[in-house]
Design goal:
Length: 81
């Protein structure tokens, strides 16, 4: 199943909502537990390239093709001296 950019995904049983920022060929799901999701955090699937943004937090773990998605770290920028 292809995931498209701009697609909103709701996991009502967990109270979590995300929006796809970069699509790809994979299926996104969520499971209860884990460290929980926070608003504004981005997650990605390295295997498919899918990226998502959390719009409604909850105690859940995001999965892509049944594998946990990785939290994207903010990009480091060079400081201006």
């Amino acid at each position: 199943m292809a995931t498209k950019p701009g697609e909103k995904v709701k996991f009502e049983d967990l109270g979590v909502e995300i929006i796809v920022t970069k699509g790809g060929d994979g299926e996104i799901s969520a499971a209860g537990g884990g460290d929980g999701l926070k608003v504004g955090k981005r997650y990605e699937c390295e295997a498919t390239g899918i990226q998502v943004l959390v719009t409604k937090p909850g105690a859940a773990t995001l999965l892509c093709n049944s594998e946990p998605m990785a939290l994207q770290e903010p990009k480091k920028t060079k400081s201006a001296d």
